[in-house]
Amino acid sequence: MKEAANDFGMTGSAQDHGGQLSKQISQIQGAITSGADMVAATAPSDAGVQSISETAVDGGVPFFEYWSMGKWLFPSKVGPEFVQYQIPETFKAGAIPAKILFEEMGGEGNYVAILGPKGHIGSYRFEGAKQAQEDYPNINLLGSQYSGGWTRQKGREVMSSFISNHGDDIDGVYCNNGTLGLGAATVLSENDMALPFTGFDGALSNIEYIQNNGPDSGEPYQVQEQAAPPFWQGGWAVAKAWDWLHGWRPEIPERMMWTRTLTVLNPGLDQSKFSDLETTFATPDKYMSVAYNDGHSPYDWKLASVHESGEDWDPQHELVPIRKSEWNQLKWDDSNRPNGLSVPDAYDNADLFDQVAEDYHQRNMNGSNPYL
User: Fold this and answer.
1) How far apart are CA 226 and CA 129, in angstroms?
2) How far is residue 18 CA from its own chain's centroid?
């Protein structure tokens, strides 16, 4: 975000709400009062999205929400300033690391699952893992547990509990987040359990761990890191906020979108074993050269802007509209649908969604995406 802001002649700053919604609202209000031109945020839980989005809308600044999303909360219903909600396709993205883990376990054995906070959409990835498990009849889930947070300490606490309950019966660990995985790895190492585990989000610490710990290292090893990637997400929000400030307005299909993930595979694993997975693979070195470049990244942020690049604009990453038929991946169902809720008519316009999806796909495939 800071890199893209600099490219557009702006400055960027970040604040940590520490999981406190009231603090986050206060931070957003303070930023707008201080003259902020845009806000991008992740609410501590799905229930907090409406409050922070309305705070931005009341302040008249374009707002972007990542990961968390309120139940049946349509950006268009909040206000025009709620430009976009974005998240990796929860079930599909959650299934990819599970399949890699199950293959590394030899297609059989027992695993445990460390989830994030209950009620956070990031924990829905586990639904994808359960779907993936259906193709592995000899894989057994010993237990799953919400961690209450996304920290290493939470990962340690849950993993310690699993080892106390299941001990050597554990053959693999599914983690909904890379930081949780690194916390779990410390407990596994302390117990001389060199087991495979998964990760998600694309943090530098996880990529470095993957580089330094392979299947033959004698240590717990992370099989992959599923990356959104967050680096691109930050720059993209700035580019689209710039467009919004210059009169561009997104269509309904653009206001809730899946972002495809990258799979940073452990170099010690055979990538050919996973050729059937619908994902883009990147080596740790390639990922770090893009997301953690010492200089300017390979992304052209102005190219992502309609205002700056006109009809030649390019997202430089795969984005897909979230369709009505996929709302179950957001855990929207009849049980939590508000009485009297009206759904925007555009969600029944399949042709419009097809058109937007194809447009984004073709633009991304023109060679400017640094991972393609």
Assistant:
1) 13
2) 19
Q: What one-character-per-residue DSSP string does 145-196 give?
A: EE-SSSSHHHHHHHHHHHHHHHGGG--EEEESSHHHHHHHHHHHHHTT---E
SS3 category, 339? coil
Reported confidence tier of residue 122, pLDDT bands at 50, 70, 90: confident
Contacts of 298 (CB under 8 A, 6+ apart): 289, 290, 370
359: left (phi over 0), alpha (psi -120 to 50) or beta: alpha
Average pLDDT score over the chain: 95
Please name the amino acid found at residue 330.
Answer: L
- Of all residues in the chain, the percent with pLDDT exceeding 90 is 91
Q: Which secondary structure element, helix H or strand E, spans residue 217, and what is its range?
A: none
Closest Cα to residue 152, out of 214, 102, 98, 199?
Answer: 199
Q: Give 27's pLDDT tier (boundaries 50, 70, 90).
A: very high
3-state secondary structure of 52: helix
Residue count of the chain: 372
Helices vs strands, H then E, count in the chain: 13, 14
Rounded Cα–Cα distance for residues 236 and 313 (Å): 12
Q: Find the DSSP H helices in the chain.
A: 2-7, 21-33, 49-59, 75-78, 90-104, 125-133, 152-166, 178-190, 204-212, 230-245, 284-291, 306-309, 350-364
Q: Which of 108-122, 176-190, 231-245 has the lowest mean pLDDT?
A: 108-122
User: If you search the block for the tokens 């027992």, which residue do you land on?
Assistant: 110
**What global pTM score does this model have?**
0.89
pLDDT tens-place string over residues 238-255 = 999 999 999 999 999 999
Whole-angstrom distance between the N-terminal and C-terminal Cα of the chain? Answer: 22
Q: How far apart are CA 80 and CA 86, in angstroms?
A: 16
Burial of 172 (0-12, 13-18, 19+ CB in 10 A): buried
Helix (H, G, I), strand (E, B) or coil at 257: strand
Residue with tokens 């883009």: 280
What pLDDT, on a 0 to 100 scale, did the predictor assign at position 230? 84
Number of CB atoms found within 10 A of residue 123's CB: 23
Sequence letter at residue 5: A
